[in-house]
Design a protein that fits this description.
By secondary structure, the chain is α+β, with helices and mostly antiparallel strands. It folds into 3 domains: 74 residues, no CATH class; 74 residues, Tetratricopeptide repeat domain (Serine Threonine Protein Phosphatase 5, Tetratricopeptide repeat, Alpha Horseshoe); 74 residues, Serine Threonine Protein Phosphatase 5, Tetratricopeptide repeat. It contains 9 helices and 7 strands; from the N terminus they run H-E-E-E-E-E-E-E-H-H-H-H-H-H-H-H. The chain has a 4-stranded antiparallel beta sheet with strand order 2-3-6-5, with no helix packed on it. It has a 3-stranded mixed beta sheet with strand order 1-7-4, with no helix packed on it. A hairpin with a 2-residue loop joins strand 5 and strand 6. The radius of gyration is 24 Å and the shape is globular. It starts with a helix and ends in a 5-residue tail after the last helix.
Amino acid sequence: MKVVLLTVVLALAMGCAAPEPFIARQLDIKIDPKDAATYLLNPSPLGKGGYSKGMMVTIDILPQPGWQVEEWIGPVFKVEGTTAQIEMDSSQAVAVRLTSTSPGTISSPPVVAKSLPDATPTASSYYDKGRDWYNTGYSGKAVYEFNKLINLDPDYPGAYWWRGNANHQGGAYRDAIQDYEKAIQLDPSHSLVYVKRSKMEYGGTFSQKTPLKAIEAYDHSIRLDPRNATAYYNRGQAYLSLGKYAEAKADIAKACSLYVLYC
């Protein structure tokens, strides 16, 4: 008995203690619309349904035919089209919004008002190939296809919208802004283009730190589409950076009322 007691005392004196219990960090992935895609996590959750602290997880979104990833919402990084990473320093929640690529649906990508003429099947082929490359994360190949489309039809706003998205995806932020501006010039009626351009100029990786300019663009986007939740949310963030907390709170609340993933 004395030997056992002495062993315990020595263990405590040497700093030995029972191992810290495993606390699972949960990763909650929300897909909107929920039937538009499935997802894979690498690595998969551990046996207790979660991850250890600090573990890096890769999220792969697998869109159903006719859908593409539009936006990631949450603390992700290294976003490359349908793939992103997250660090499990705590339980995390990530939302992924998808948009339909099928013509004639409400959630179709903006700036596609002008349809490709039937007489130029080659242009249609460039358009489809460019979108396919973009949806699979090959931004350089997407830009190449949209370049060929623009050479055939330089007045097609949808080509600049998609090339801007591909340039953004590939890190060519100046080129992306120029493409969004060209899309607006050709067709100023689509509110989401203003949001994307302003997010690039103010809130994106290529930040110009011009919240007043961003707010002006978001104002215009909201006038075009009063139910554009993203415009309200981004304008709220811009107001927040200026210390205009009442305006920021109102815009973020409005975004939440329009789109639950902003709540």
